[in-house]
């Protein structure tokens, strides 16, 4: 059991060093955060947000690219906007932005 625990910890450490976040447990729970939009891809339905810590996920602040649940959420946003947003984890384990509001 101890060996398996060390293997898991080593794998998570390697992912963090490689710039990947460890997988979080699947959940229908939403997670709230604030950040700054760094890039938008409206055709692909993706947004890059530099966010602060997301305590409910145990994530430190970082810049990440997220899918958006509805590409219409990106309408009116631009790079440099400060936003409040919510994330939810899909069945595939990936997190998607489910709501986003500019902070003016």
UniProtKB/TrEMBL annotation:
<dbReference type="InterPro" id="IPR042230">
    <property type="entry name" value="CusF_sf"/>
</dbReference>
<feature type="signal peptide">
    <location>
        <begin position="1"/>
        <end position="26"/>
    </location>
</feature>
<keyword id="KW-0732">Signal</keyword>
<dbReference type="Pfam" id="PF11604">
    <property type="entry name" value="CusF_Ec"/>
</dbReference>
<dbReference type="InterPro" id="IPR021647">
    <property type="entry name" value="CusF_Ec"/>
</dbReference>
<protein>
    <recommendedName>
        <fullName>Copper-binding protein</fullName>
    </recommendedName>
</protein>
């Amino acid at each position: 059991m101890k060996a398996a625990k060390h293997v898991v910890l080593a794998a998570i450490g390697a992912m963090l060093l490689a710039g990947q976040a460890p997988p979080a447990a699947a959940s229908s729970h939403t997670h709230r955060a604030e950040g700054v939009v760094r890039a938008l891809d409206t055709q692909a339905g993706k947004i890059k947000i530099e966010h602060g810590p997301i305590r409910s996920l145990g994530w430190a602040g970082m810049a990440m690219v997220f899918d958006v649940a509805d590409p219409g959420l990106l309408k009116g946003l631009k790079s440099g906007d400060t936003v409040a947003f919510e994330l939810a984890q899909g069945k595939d384990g990936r997190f998607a932005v489910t709501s986003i509001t500019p902070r003016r």
